[in-house]
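User: Could you go from structure to sequence for me? I need the amino acid at each position, not a summary. Structure tokens:
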């Protein structure tokens, strides 16, 4: 039996929507934000995905640390919405739905809703890890967006 729960957060930043989308939809850049990520490899896009990745997190259970690798797909990436889905065995899914909108004062508002689904015996641990990691990411996100205009151009 699967258990499902959702949490959300909002961040405000003084950046362009394009810069926010560039950061949030390129999962190779998530290592600077997400406290559990230790490695991200881009994969060929899976059917229906705009981009696909293999991501390795470093999880802890008491004093033990262990790597866990899972697949993540960017399904939607527009100027006002990003949807990603991460899948890990057994039957664990994290869906991230991000909405971006410009507020009246010119600040970009980033609203994120995370939905985690996992088998009942794993759910409490997985949900605590996901919520803790994503709230730490949220604490860093505004600062990174305020200072990071996106990847520097390459070439010459």
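Assistant: Here is the amino acid at each position, in order:
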């Amino acid at each position: 039996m699967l258990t499902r729960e959702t949490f959300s957060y909002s961040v405000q930043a003084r950046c362009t929507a394009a810069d926010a989308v560039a950061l949030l939809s390129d999962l190779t850049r998530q290592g600077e934000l997400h406290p559990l990520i230790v490695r991200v490899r881009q994969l060929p896009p899976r059917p229906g995905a705009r981009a696909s990745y293999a991501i390795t997190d470093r999880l802890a259970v008491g004093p033990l640390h262990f790597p866990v690798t899972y697949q993540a797909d960017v399904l939607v990436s527009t100027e006002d919405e990003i949807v990603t889905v991460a899948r890990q065995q057994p039957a664990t899914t994290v869906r991230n739905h991000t909405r971006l909108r410009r507020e009246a004062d010119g600040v970009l508002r980033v609203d994120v809703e995370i939905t985690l689904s996992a088998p009942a015996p794993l759910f409490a641990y997985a949900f605590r890890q996901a919520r803790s990691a994503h709230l730490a990411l949220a604490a860093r996100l505004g600062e990174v967006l305020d200072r990071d205009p996106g990847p520097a151009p390459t070439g010459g």
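One structural detail worth keeping in mind: The radius of gyration is 16 Å.
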